[in-house]
């Protein structure tokens, strides 16, 4: 790697495929992926395309080619915000976050010099968020998390989030 690597800290990734969570957990508009013939896809929520996905968002080979073409050495990869699902029942959201976090960790393990993983957490339940934070840190080795600006319908100064923020400070 170069002495001064070029690092893009804001890139999103999704699995290429996942189970139909709307069928598994009837409540809510779980995200789905709709692939197109040209190799791109859309992130679909509630039957509506909410985000276009370039091939590099779900195929690591395409991401690495893009990075090389753009002169970027490292991507920090995280789920896009529509994948946070803070509206969902907390235990289902934890399983959803776990699926994404395991995917991110696997990509980072396969390309440790090119990818840095950023986890998502079920912020609608701060206690479960703390458990998942510990799991991604201790079991998956992910060193960063991404949370939305209004996690679980709470402002950051909501005292319900304080145990989570405290846990995030501990090593």
Biggest β-sheet: strands ordered side by side in the sheet: 1-5-6-7
CATH C-level class: Alpha Beta
- Spans with pLDDT under 50 lasting ≥5 residues? none
The largest β sheet comes out as: 4 strands, parallel
If you compute it from the alpha carbons, what radius of gyration comes out, rounded to the nearest whole angstrom? 16 Å
Count helical runs.
5
| CATH architecture descriptor text | Alpha-Beta Barrel
Helix content: 25-40%
Give the distance, in angstroms, between the N- and C-terminal Cα atoms.
28 Å
Helix-strand layout with pairing:
Elements: E1 7-12, H1 21-24, E2 32-35, E3 41-45, E4 48-53, H2 60-70, E5 74-78, H3 90-110, E6 115-119, H4 126-140, E7 144-145, H5 162-169
Parallel strand pairs: 1-5, 5-6, 6-7
Antiparallel strand pairs: 2-3, 3-4
Helix pairs in contact: 3-4, 4-5
Describe the model.
With 171 residues, the chain is α/β, with parallel strands linked by helices. The protein has one domain: Alpha-Beta Barrel (TIM Barrel), CATH 3.20.20.140. A hairpin with a 5-residue loop joins strand 2 and strand 3. The longest helix is centred in the middle third of the chain and has 21 residues. The protein is globular and about 45 Å long.
């Amino acid at each position: 790697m170069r002495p001064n690597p070029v690092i893009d800290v804001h890139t999103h990734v999704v699995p290429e495929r996942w189970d139909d969570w709307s069928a598994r957990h009837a409540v809510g508009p779980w995200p789905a992926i709709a692939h197109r013939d040209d190799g791109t896809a859309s992130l679909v929520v509630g039957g509506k395309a909410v985000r276009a996905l370039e091939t590099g968002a779900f195929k690591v080979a395409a991401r690495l080619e893009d990075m090389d073409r753009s002169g970027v050495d490292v991507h920090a990869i995280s789920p896009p915000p529509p994948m946070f699902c803070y509206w969902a029942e907390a235990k289902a959201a934890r399983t959803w976050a776990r699926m994404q976090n395991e995917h991110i960790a696997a990509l980072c393990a396969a390309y440790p010099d090119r990818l840095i993983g950023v986890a998502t957490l079920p912020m609608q339940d701060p206690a479960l968020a703390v458990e998942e934070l510990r799991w991604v840190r201790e079991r998956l080795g992910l060193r960063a998390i991404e949370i939305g600006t209004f996690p679980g319908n709470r402002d950051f100064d909501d005292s319900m989030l304080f145990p989570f923020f405290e846990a995030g400070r501990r090593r």
